Amino acid sequence: MSKQISAIRGMNDLYGEQAAAFEYLVESAQAVLQQYGYESIRLPIVEKTQLFARSIGEVTDIVEKEMYTFDDRNGDSLTLRPEGTAGCVRAVIQNGLAYNQIQKLFYTGPMFRYERPQKGRYRQFHQFGVEVFGLATPDIDAELIVLSARLWEKLCLENLELQINSLGSAQARADYRDILVVYFNEHKDRLDEDSLRRLDSNPLRILDTKNPDMKELVENAPKLIDHLDDESIQHFENVKGYLDDAGIDYVVNPNLVRGLDYYNRTVFEWVTTELGAQGTVCAGGRYDGLVEQIGGKATPAVGFAMGIERLMALLMDKDLVPAGHNSPDIYVVLVGDKVQRPGMVLAEMLRDSTSRFKVQMNCGGGSFKSQFKKADKSGAQFAIILGDEEVEQKSVSVKFLRQAQEQQTVSWDNLVEFIEQHAG
Ligand code: ATP
Ligand code: MG
Q1: Is the pTM of this model over 0.85?
Q2: What pLDDT sits at residue 14?
Q3: Which domains does the chain have, with CATH numbers?
Q4: Cα of 83 to ligand 1 centre, how many Å?
């Protein structure tokens, strides 16, 4: 036997319950987005490295040390996408979808970051992302938050805390940056190595530190929210007003700056305390400068991304994935010498007459007992048993697997109607 080859660290196979939770989550999110009139967009997983460097920012964790970058056979530098916004902006510009138009888009798929794998943090993970182009007004910032709240409700997820902040205009941020540099320079001895480096290149990111030793220093730092421009203050007040009307609670977190450089004005995160350190399940904000920054005509934009693995963990911990999301309704048991081919015909007939029920046919033979065990394990409501005698009479025995009811003989002609009448 040859030596086994294992998957890459931090890149997981999702199967069974996890795969069911994954699909349930993505289907639920899609349904909510469609309810709000958003459209799907499907994007490449690989882009030119430069796209991410220019959009996410050269001095961010992602670009500095987390990207999977390689030269392709032509010698071009390519990168596995670490997030979805940059590629979406690129696509919208390239296909002429941004200028003088409104686009409301969603996508889902794998993202790649070379991070230290731990609970809720993987090297291949999945996001469900939403991006809106062409709207500068606060109604759309609020709509994104409101629709994410609707998704939590649909999923029965309670106790997610909404944190919001405003990063203001580019000018306000530049002025604040100077104030912050003065403050941190006064306390240089208390900065860790990462923060010292950021002091010159990207001082706002110091506020995003996860180092507990710097917590107090960061908490006492001057707040961006006290240095915002008037228009951004007004914008932020309006966003809060919409949230108040929608009955959505929020906490203003003045240190919420996000790990990517392209944000301005509204930023937000949905956070849970129930997953340990990796508590942010959804994060986003406004990025009005990005389209122009990567070569398009100036177009306001706002978006967010949900971390599918973290939401999956929450759903599974709380047992919120509906049972039987992937299990069949009907399991066809075939016992006899001449039942295999009629069995397939019958199963196909059932699938033809109704798409409401999932029909699984026993393949590979086996004793009545072993087939019955499989039927029970499948989670199906009904077992339909076909033996040689039933084939001759064009009937089946229907056994109720989840209800206390007598087994019954039903003719093929009446089978669909019978199942429909007795299905829970
Ligand atoms: P964090 O602060 O947790 O590292 P981030 O600010 O890097 O998150 P974003 O780039 O905003 O995250 O991505 C949006 C969401 O994607 C996060 O809130 C999180 O739920 C999820 N996410 C990000 N990185 C990972 C990862 N390595 N593994 C699993 N999920 C992730
Ligand atoms: Mg991160």
Answers
A1: yes
A2: 97
A3: 17-169+228-317 (3.30.930.10), 330-422 (3.40.50.800)
A4: 9
